[in-house]
Request: fold
Amino acid sequence: MTTADYLLQAEKALQKTEDTNWASDTFLNKEAIKETDVAREDERDVEWHPLIPFLPHGTRVLFLGSFPPQRKRWCMDFFYPNFINDHWRIEGLVFFDDESYFVDKTQKRFQLRSIVDHLKQQGIGFFDTSIAIRRLAENASDKFLEVVEVTDIPAIVNQLPELRAIVTTGEKATQTIVKALGMSDENRHWLLPKMGTATKTPCHDIELYRLPSSSRAYPMALAKKAAAYKTMFQRYLAE
Reply:
């Protein structure tokens, strides 16, 4: 799997988002993983992204994280798949005033079909800032990820004519985007947005907006995180 392969997938992702059978795990790029294992015998420690970009028609907000956690931590084949990560509880609070709206408590998983319907309706997309990484430790912390291949962000953005904001929730993802887009001042200082603020990007009129992490390791109450996310959504999803 090469960068070009992922860019080709990005071009097709708008239609693939519509056509995918979300009752199954067909969104998982099993063939890409299989081919990568064969083609990279000498790079077994390099892990390639297992998902294609989720880019619904009319995407106005695009979340770009760092990289999915290890597969053993997944409860569904989608972004933010770790059941103890609170992203989908936050969106439940923001849009439905119910942190359990997307939660299947019995099965301890998220309700993927409801999530996909919601994201399509709202125009919210997802991918990550890296398409290949090395894990330097056996945990989900971004600080132990070594970026091997950065996502070609402009190539994805160019597929989204209605996009208004790229949103990050972690320091590594924010730094990766800023460096990839060359966002620096006249003194070559990187223009990292502060928490809860936005910075203009070189990509048309699109802003880079930074939010608190949905990880429970981030020291902020769920309700306060939801309030921060709600402010962002109101800014970019308002008609």
Observations:
- Confidence is low (pLDDT under 50) at residues 22-42.
- The domain at 3-237 is CATH 3.40.470.10 (Uracil-DNA Glycosylase, subunit E).
- Residues 98 and 175 are 32 Å apart (CA to CA).
